[in-house]
Amino acid sequence: MRYKSTPFKEKIIDEFCGDLYRVMGASLEDYRIMCAKHGAIFDVECDDVLDKEGSSGLRYHLKHKLARLSYIFKRCHDEGEDWMDTDYEDDFWEYALTLDLGIERGGLLTESEQIAAPTSISHESIYRETKI
Fold first, then answer.
1. 106: exposed, middle or buried (C-beta count within 10 Å: 0-12, 13-18, 19+)?
2. 121/89 Cα distance (integer angstroms)
3. Nearest partner of 14 among 78, 53, 81, 62, judged by Cα
4. Counting Cβ atoms within 10 Å, is residue 52 exposed (0-12), middle (13-18) or buried (19+)?
5. Within a 10 A sphere around the Cβ of 79, how many other Cβ atoms?
């Protein structure tokens, strides 16, 4: 199967690769493998989101997925899996801002808002020790 390639999609995926490595210490190939192990095909998912929501929708989608994955790894590392039974949505969005991915609940941040995002939590050491 051939996947769609557009300049917008390529730029967004390149940006995602940088974020993925910075936040999780993982490559795009690592992420594709993880998606495949859970029944998803990264490129098909990207094409679907791009078709339905456009380039800003794809950018938000990828940043949101990365923030969720990072949050899950952090919480499991810190607390085990018991936290999954609690309501964690507000805590997740607070954590997502610390990743400096440029997203907030419901959308992308503007550049001026990104500069103001808190950056006090760093969990890079957790992700370098944990392989996806």
1. exposed
2. 18
3. 62
4. exposed
5. 11
Instruction: Indicate the length of the chain as a whole number.
Output: 132
Which helix (H) or strand (E) segment is 60 a member of?
Answer: helix 42-79
How far apart are the C-alpha atoms of 109 and 86, rounded to whole Å?
Answer: 27
Secondary structure (3-state) at 89:
helix
d(CA 86, CA 49): 29
Q: How far is 13 from 17, CA to CA, in rounded Å?
A: 6
pLDDT in tens, the chain (132 residues): 456 778 889 999 999 999 999 999 999 999 999 999 989 999 999 999 999 999 999 999 999 999 999 988 888 888 877 766 777 788 888 888 888 888 788 777 764 444 333 333 333 333 334 444
CB 88 within 8 A of CB 75: yes
Strands 107-108 and 103-104: antiparallel
The structure's pTM equals 0.68
